[in-house]
Design brief:
This protein has nine helices and six strands, in the order H-E-H-E-H-H-E-H-E-H-H-E-H-E-H. By secondary structure, the chain is of the alpha/beta class. A four-stranded parallel β-sheet has the order 1-2-3-4, with helices on one face. A two-stranded parallel sheet has the order 5-6.
């Protein structure tokens, strides 16, 4: 089932192919981009290599690199440097991220922060928020951005926590809300009551 995607006029969404050389070339042949903003945390070598070969300007935005990933890439430092040289600018989330990219041989690394945390808070209705806060004067556990199979885990954890917190409320916020019927079935099967 297709996800509803709300984009401004003139914009559209296109899924990215697996990082297989022929598919990457066909994708770039078809779209023929003039400029690329890379916001993916994973660095796909075939796509980035093809972007570099075609001399398409590219910028890595909101870049992060965990210590674990840094250590893995550091074992192949020459390859990492070659891949990172695709980007004319790397905009790192933190000083640590910036240092890791620089240590791998990336040039023109700037620390710009995390765009998620820099965004303004979403608007909300004060009255509804106040009513919700009043109604939730009990322990609340949020299981957010769930995928198929994870809701049953949330139900098991809820049962375990219930002995210590008898009035516990568990909120499940699925990654894909259109799975509502499936989630309702999982919750019912676990002997719990769902309210939507």
């Amino acid at each position: 089932c297709a996800l509803p995607i709300y984009l401004p006029r003139g914009a559209f969404h296109q899924f990215y192919p697996w990082d297989y050389p022929d598919w990457v070339r066909k994708f770039l042949d078809h779209w023929n981009p003039d400029f690329i903003l890379w916001m993916e945390s994973e660095l796909w070598p075939n796509m980035l290599g093809e972007i570099k070969t075609r001399n398409i300007p590219a910028v890595l935005v909101n870049a992060r690199l965990s210590e674990k990933s840094f250590k893995r890439w550091n074992m192949f430092k020459a390859s990492a440097q070659d891949i990172l040289s695709t980007f004319s600018l790397i905009m790192a989330q933190t000083e640590k991220d910036g240092a890791r990219f620089t240590n791998l041989g990336a040039e023109n690394v700037r620390v710009t922060g995390n765009i998620k945390f820099s965004a303004k808070p979403l608007p909300y209705d004060d009255t509804e928020y106040g009513a919700l806060s009043h109604a939730l004067r009990k322990p609340v556990w949020l299981f957010a951005s769930t995928h198929a199979g994870e809701e049953s885990m949330a139900c098991r954890v809820h049962h375990q926590l219930k002995s210590a917190f008898p009035d516990l409320m568990t909120i499940i916020a699925p990654r894909h809300p259109e799975r509502r019927a499936e989630i309702d079935h999982v919750i019912s099967k676990a002997g719990l009551i769902a309210t939507f």
